Amino acid sequence: MKDRQNADLDPVINESGIEIKPLYTPDDVERTGRPDDIGTPGEYPFTRGIHRQMYRKRPWTMRQYAGFGQPEETNQRFQYLIANGQTGLNVAFDLPTQVGLDSDDPAAEGEVGRVGMAVDTLKDFEIAFDAIDLDKITVSLTINGAAVTLIAMYFAMAEKRGYDIRKLRGTAQNDILKEFIGRGTWIFPVEPSIKLVGDTILYCAENAPLYSPVSVCGYHIRESGANPVQEMAYAFCIAKAYIDHVLARGLAIDEFASRLSFNFDIHGNLFEQVAKFRAGRRLWAKILKEQYGTQNPRSMWLRMIAGGGGGGLTIEQPENNIVRGAYYALISALSGTQTMALCSFDEAYTIPSEQAARTSLRTMQILIEEMGLCDTVDPLAGSYYVETLTNQMEQRIRATMDELDVAGGIVRAVAEGRIQSEVSAQAYERLKKLERGEIRKVGVNCYRIDEEEPQVEFHPFREEACTRQVGRLNDVRRRRDNAAVDAALRRVLDDAKAARNVMPAVISAVKAYATVGEITQRFVEAYGRYQEPIRF
Amino acid sequence: MTRTRPVRVLFAKPGLDGHDVGAKIVVRALREAGFEVIYTGLRKTPEQIVASARDEDVDVIGLSILSGSHLPICRRVRDLLTEAGLQDVLWLVGGNIPSKDNAELENLGVDGVFSVGTPTQAIVDFIHGKCS
Lengths: 536, 132
Description:
The complex is a heterodimer.
Chain A lengths: L11 E2 L5 E2 L5 H7 L28 E2 L2 E2 L4 H13 L4 E4 L3 H4 L23 H7 L9 E4 L5 H14 L9 E3 L3 H6 L8 H18 L3 E2 L1 E4 L1 H5 L4 H21 L11 E6 L4 H22 L5 H4 L3 E4 L12 H15 L4 E2 L13 H16 L14 H23 L3 H6 L2 H19 L26 H17 L2 H16 L5 H9 L4 H12 L9
Parallel strand pairs in A: 3-12, 4-5, 5-6, 6-7, 7-8, 9-10, 10-11
Antiparallel strand pairs in A: 1-2
Helix pairs in contact in A: 1-14, 2-4, 5-19, 7-9, 9-10, 9-14, 10-12, 10-14, 12-13, 18-19, 18-20
Chain B lengths: L7 E5 L8 H12 L3 E4 L6 H10 L4 E6 L4 H14 L6 E6 L6 H7 L3 E4 L4 H12 L1
Helix pairs in contact in B: 1-5, 2-3
């Protein structure tokens, strides 16, 4: 129906395609949702939060993404962040580690320790986490293609330090399906890649029940061009693909669903993002209850990190990114996240300086200490606008999931490159709109200034760190029991070929100081390599 | 001299980085501008890229690099281009390239450096200016 009173106003349509009214009233909330949809925090359908008291009991975990050079340098940055009040760690690995290459592999040339910490063997993990109390500081490993090996290393390192794996907390990103859509650190073909994710879930359910083996990422799908509805919808489809795989291997839903976690993006329109998270939380609870018949409320929880926001930051006038980061943090806090991380203001240029990383941390601490974001649960609840938008977002996320299912499901869509093509077309359209000025971006297509290249402190890349890393790798190779390594690697290959769970064999191999590259090579022998479909 | 065929471009992602949003955007923009563009996909070695450039008989090579490893990659590409006798191919590099590295890239023979934030039309115009 045409709104006659506001006929003089230009329409406003948010990124998810929802037309925004100039005014919302109780009628809108009633018309778009059901009375019991809002509910109570800590209770089904969890719209208002997965916990009853949320941040009154404990603020979100602060977990800046960090890692570079050799493990020693990364350990120093970890210590710096912890000394400044950070409550979790989020480890960045260099690209050779992420794609399963050793530091002396010819293909790793120029990349060792550049965008993250170099890891070859268990020795590197021992150094990286030295003097960090793994009971007090939970660690998130941003690793996907090589996740099996790095999770095994984390467990082996913790065990060596005397921690009980059964009580060990922490998270691995380990969401390979989104790597095929964005980020691109895939190694093996789609099906065996899913099988490896399944191996980690099954292994953890039995042996490390408090560990979160997977963090399903809408984040990188959004960064690749998806809108907020697609971000949530595709992440849920991916999570369901892992769930279905694990169920088919004989586990019951409540034996593992509570350990699945999520990673979402926070840039964009504030209200749209908050509604996205509230809608996502509710829809995920409904999916687990209605489609998987779970009885355990914890299995219905959308536990998440809501952070980053890199796609919203600009290379122009980078100091504006501090302001954007503060608003993104506000979005995240208003969304009831469990964990928060922010891209730093210099991150469009370089690995964040200590000062930039500290500023991100302070941004979160200011919200906690000064702005009252922890005082009460889900403070935007009951807003006619936010509740209406939450209802509309939920409907759209569900509809997008249904469309994808009808079109053959997410696994096929990813394998054929259809999702990749769709989001990259959208990224292109968005850029064109930016270039035409139809989407406004401060400092980019409006309020520009003539600027020299801004004064950012570039993170130094040290060639000698790479040489030292290769030296250490060779040293480990000389000192280890190479017969034991060979036997362990044979078992990795045999178990991979026989479609057994590879986790026990990989844990034995890393304990014998087998390298990331050696273990990955065995998987390549068993599974082959992924061939990227080029589709526009 | 007028051209008898559309400008052919090889667009590649060298190195191990998998962030290809920008690369795919540029590929689309170049195709829309009427160029023939071959996109290699991720994780191509300098050897693979130069071999493709030779086999496909391209006029332009575009590399998208965001990881910071543009200098070692471009040094290798330069050697291979020289070996293959492809010094005349227009060579463009884009991505996360700090301006302090522009001079060294130019010394290596890179014809145009387009850092993050460059309007796609500027790349199209640059190619038109050099290849018409």
